Amino acid sequence: MSDALESPAAEADSVRYRRADSALWRVAGDGVLVLAAGAQEPVAVLGAGRALWELLGSGMTATEAAVELADRFEVPPGVVLDAIEPVLQELRAIGALERVQS
Amino acid sequence: MIAQLDDLTDAVAAFGLPGALVDFPDAPLMDDDWASLLARTLEARTSGLLQAAVHTDAMPVTDDQREQVLDLHTGTMVQSLFLEALLLATADQLDRAGIPFRVLKGSAVAHLDYTDPALRAFGDVDLLVRSEDFDAAVELLQGVGHRRLFRHPGKGSDRRFGESTTLATADGLEIDLHRRFVLGPYALTVDLHRVWDSSESFDLGGRQLMALDAESRVMHAAFHAILGGYPARALALRDVAEMLLFGCYDDRRLIALGESWQSDAVLARAVRLTWQRFRLADVTRLSAWAARHRATPEQARRLALYETDRSSYAPHSLAAVAGVSRFRDKVAFLRTLSLPDGALLAQHNEQPSRVAWLIRGVRRHAAGRRPT
Known about the structure:
The complex is a heterodimer of chains A (102) and B (372). Chain A is of the alpha+beta class. Helices cover 42% and strands 19% of the residues of chain A. Chain A has helices at residues 8-14, 49-55, 62-73, 77-93; strands at residues 17-19, 24-28, 31-35, 43-45, 97-99. In chain A, strand 3 and strand 4 (43-45) form a beta hairpin. In chain B, helix 16 runs antiparallel to helix 17. The N and C termini of chain B lie far apart (44 Å).
């Protein structure tokens, strides 16, 4: 099934993403600066986004990442998922994340 | 306060080294001293170490000062990322042209020798090419639009031209292209065959780049610390300390390499100076060797040639202060793309501080342009 045919909820459960090898990044304070290959400008992923970026060193679905972060920060997983999905979407859009082939 | 600032600048550069008997103040610095420290930190490229010292509360600061350090560090890391993008683009260009190269200093040291590359900032891309490839490499890089610079058009330009050249991108980033990695008399004693025969790779942006091997990196760092400017730069000494305290070099091979390059006196002096400036209490086999080492009269004469040249890296405090402003302006351009915490707070009043901290958003850096 292609990305386009998957519902957001199904994708959150089934599609694994990880940091793109081609992305350059640095930790800066509580955040991470990410310069994706071909991007004209870096993005700063702040706060617990740093923990999310570290989790994405290995392949992970959005739901799995949300569960991990929820446990770490003692916040309901649904709240975390709502918070991280736009961040994941932005990182995917700029090419900083790549889909893990299963 | 200047002497105390000197000590504090070294304390920042030594932050996190085991056995470093350096002191931080008991209270935040007053505004003028703080501004001076920030300027020195920018010039010394130790913002990552100051950020780490502040983050762990080793260095007491006000809330405003904490923000300023983070701004400075963020700006510095943005520059490092742009330089690494330039390094990757240049590596591809050299590969396509069949020109072998080694990455020197900056990115190579940050990734191979530091526990966190964010601790090691750098201001340019340094590449070593074979002497016979030098002109072709310069031509190639000019061909992709980089402009050759002559930073010192007067005194010493011929000597500098002979050893390396600097090329600037349209965005103002710089590539230092070297055919040797030391100037003056030592250029004749350093046998670069080893550099090409033995190397170590590191991963950057999904590709492997070749750097010097561990012992050659220590020697290069020692050259840079002792011969690269007088007095020795704090970051150059930090590189030496980082490699010697955490690195995977071999003592015997390192000393043998120093002797074979007739540069054992440089290595010994770099180690002694690093231990002295950072007040490192721990004794290692190499620091014990360095303490015992005595330069021959000829070695002492050679070293003296470099230590009297104060012109090359004289401090430029005013320029550094201007640099602080530039970085802060640059960082101020970071803009928010998404800030979900407000909505989250409205929906989930429980544990507001944790939720607010959870994701503060993705911010885009709009000021800089990636090198082409």
